[in-house]
Amino acid sequence: MAAQRASRVVGRVVGTDDATPLEFWVAVAPGAHIQLDDVVALNRILPTGEILSIYGIVGQVRARHEGARFQSDVFLIADGLLPAEVSEAAMVQVTRVVPEVFVPPLPGAEVRKATEEERAAALDYETVERKLPAGLSRDGEPVFLDVDFLDGTKGAHVNISGISGVATKTSYATFLLYSLFHSGVLGAEAANTKALIFNVKGEDLLFLDHPNTRLDPDQPDRYRLLGLPTGAFRSVGVLAPPRKGDPNATPDVGSRAVGVRPFFWTIAQFCAQGLLPFLFADAEDERQQYTIVVQSVTARLMEAARTGSGPDGAVRIEGTTVRSFRDLVEFIERKLIPDDADEPVDQRWTGRAVGAGTINAFIRRFASATARVEHLIRADIADAPAYALDLDAQQVTVVDIHNLHERAQRFVVGVVLRQAFERKEASGIAKPLQFVVLDELNKYAPREGSSPIKEILLDVAERGRSLGIILIGAQQTASEVERRVVANSAVRVVGRLDSAEAGREQYGWLPGAQRQRATILKPGTMYVSQPRLPVPVLVEFPFPAWATRSAEADIVGHAAHTAGAAALPADPFEGLS
Length: 577
Hints:
Blueprint: H1 2-7, E1 9-13, E2 23-28, E3 39-45, E4 51-66, H2 73-78, E5 85-98, E6 110-113, H3 116-122, E7 131-136, E8 142-146, E9 158-161, H4 169-182, E10 194-199, H5 219-225, E11 236-240, E12 260-262, H6 267-272, H7 291-308, E13 315-317, E14 320-322, H8 325-336, H9 347-350, H10 356-368, H11 370-373, E15 396-400, H12 406-427, E16 434-438, H13 441-444, H14 452-467, E17 469-475, H15 483-487, E18 491-494, H16 499-502, H17 512-517, E19 525-529, E20 537-540, H18 555-562
Parallel strand pairs: 9-17, 9-18, 10-15, 10-16, 11-12, 11-15, 16-17
Antiparallel strand pairs: 1-2, 1-6, 2-5, 3-4, 3-6, 4-5, 7-8, 13-14, 18-19, 19-20
């Protein structure tokens, strides 16, 4: 063992720089090299005779000429006219001390690369019962997350930040889900664990159940190193909004023709479930006076739905049958703005006496939603109630909203999130878990203001751990997201960051060297922080083994296996090897 350790020695603790219990410098030995992200170890013998093991990660490396006084001396040294030695040194950030006696390493102590058991001790893996593969280190070794900080046992939620298109935030979020479902860390609970993914950009997430036909040959080896199979998600349901003006509610999807179901809400569901406030889900709306009218109208619609809902999804309100969203807008407008100017406004609908300006503001806002959401709220489809969202039908449910106007996107996200949250709340138990992947978190839970969606996300962030609903949120700028949502995330991840954003206080968990380096990270490379370690770890995750666009999907082969099945099969991969 001693001989093996000696063969891994890469340097000694420097005596000219201060060594502390949290950070120290290592002089690199001749013929050796240390690079960023290397995991190292050393020992110190205490006066009591006890052997102390100190572990750390290399956060910075420097090289300099020793013996030079001026910058221009480099030319003389290079020409052999001035004697000098090249010195390399690495700054090590301490990750663990075993046992926990926090004293600095002594100058001159041998420093070695940590491998196998020592590496596990350095990254605090040896006591973790359930290790979730989170990616590979730069030297090809697996990096793990403690599932206890994901499933609510000790913590919950993941927050991912990074520049759009470069940081691969959504790719990493789906990789974590794939790892959760296929690594065995969830045990028997994996079969019943669900994931809800909102597809907000393009149609990239509509092919999670298709193997990637253009996967590089070396990628299966990377999955193998992580203990994961190479393939697609096995149970995926894709839901998309119906096309505008289509009487058959055909899903508005361009690249996928099989296995997609439309989603919408009937007028009866819209009224009975009190969904009106989600049409006013901008953070600025909560500061407006017409929110009083919103709440009053919502209450009246819920009351009408209790007695006037029909089997076709229509609602009869005060003698008028409402079958479309446009009809609903016109009916409410008549109730709030009587034909006779001298007729008083029905305060059952306004809640109290409010000015004409407040009522008009509500009507303008409400009516302007017609073109955006009328294809999502309707009672003109046969067996319409059967199209209600079922988040339990598949292991992974993808809700496609990329074709919707921003206002309609807010409505869908808010309503679906509330359904998922209330379902978990009503169950009374945390298991099985419900994961929610939501990009553009800054749009739905902005730092300033309030809205129905933001309140739900705060509930998820603060109470989701106990309820078993786990948020995997992503955004370009964590500085623009509600602080409590980010603060409640046990696992934090960053990809490539904008230089200005990297300097924000929200990234205080990133040490200076890692914060600077985050501005030049390549796609597929992330810094991952978890409560077990005081230092974030750089990981590289494999390219998705599932198709990320239609060109990568084996459409013909997949269709052959699903031919004759229902539009949304119970298991799209049943029978496949």
